[in-house]
Each structure stands twice: as structure tokens, then as C-alpha cells.
């Protein structure tokens, strides 16, 4: 057994997220108080037809929902969405990106992300599609981590066995779910540490008795 595929998460892994960008400034601007944005928009209550992360509503429906809940005009709603995507996409972790890009063609590479409608278009600025064999966005496939089904979908799309994958994610629950599906998985700490941890998995399996 040896590693044939490396799969990474995006948010807080390939992207460095600045939590001061959103929604804090909007909570202050609208007088909502800390945590007030989430309570005001009530994403899992009434007003939305379903879970955005599973693709059951569109980006336009999210915008309209936030606009109505927060009593914004069109200009303010546009500004809100710009700030949201600026926060969502963060800044690229160039060190991790360059390492990930250099894995091909030795390994198959893929991204597995719990996402919101519009993520592929907004994150296109980073060029993820140019360095991977596949991008699996939860809102496009109607499945989300830690559902075992999304790990199996990813495995089948990249065409390897579960035990031939090493996965990097910043959420412990998602790492545990990947391991339960037979993947090798590493909890993201920072680029330097995570690269070392993934490379250690690759090296150890290459040296195992059944490694190829």
C-alpha cells in the first residue's frame, strides 16, 4: 500500500481566513452586538428553502435573505456580499499552495470543501482548478463533510482506493470521518507542520512491507 492521492480542504487550509473581516464590522455597523449577525439572518430557520452548503439555495437567494433580514438597500446588500466573499476567500497560503501544486504528476490531487453557492467562481482567483485533478464542492454535489458519502464520492472521482489517500483538513470531526472511511488524514496546524505531517504519512507508507 502507498499513497497515490493527496486531498486538501480550502477554508483555513489553502486559504488563511481573517475573522476580523466579517461579520464583526457589520455587527458593529448595524448595532447587532457580538454574534448578532448569525442570530439576525437565522440561516437555518425560516426564510431559506434549504441548506446553502448542500446547494439547496442559490447565492442570489442568500443575498435576498440577508437583505430582508438586515433591512438593507441594494447598495448595502452588494457591499455586504463583497465583504462576505473577501472574508470567505481570505488570502492564499502560498507556501501550502506551491507544495500542493508540485505534487502532480507523482500524485493525483483534489480539493474537498464544504462550500457555499458561488464559492467555485469566487475562489477561481486562486487557480485551484489548474493544480488539481478534481474539485469537490459540497454545494455542487449535495453532500457535506463529515457525511461518509462525500468521502466515497471523492474517492471514486479521483480513482484510487480509500487507503491510498491522505487528506488534510482543519476540522477534527472531518479528519476523524475520513479515517473512518479508510483514508489517512492529518489535522491542519499550519503550512509547515501540515506539509511535514502529510509527507511523513507518504514516506511511512512507501516504506511499509506492502508499499509499492
Low-confidence stretches: none
Give me the number of helical elements: 11
Mean pLDDT: 95
The best one-word shape is: elongated
Q: What can be said about the biggest beta sheet?
A: 5 strands, parallel
Relevant terms:
alpha/beta, two-stranded antiparallel sheet, five-stranded parallel beta sheet, 212 residues
Question: Can you describe this structure?
Answer:
The chain is an alpha/beta fold. The protein contains eleven helices and seven strands. The strands form two sheets. A five-stranded parallel beta sheet has the order 5-4-1-6-7, sandwiched between helices. Helix 3 packs across helix 4.
Condensed summary:
Helices cover 46% and strands 13% of the residues. The model has no long low-confidence stretch (mean pLDDT 95).
Q: Secondary-structure blueprint of this entry?
A:
Blueprint: E1 5-8, E2 15-16, H1 24-29, H2 36-41, H3 59-70, H4 74-89, E3 91-92, H5 94-101, E4 108-113, H6 119-123, H7 128-131, E5 134-137, H8 138-141, H9 148-158, E6 165-169, H10 172-180, E7 184-187, H11 191-206
Parallel strand pairs: 1-4, 1-6, 4-5, 6-7
Antiparallel strand pairs: 2-3
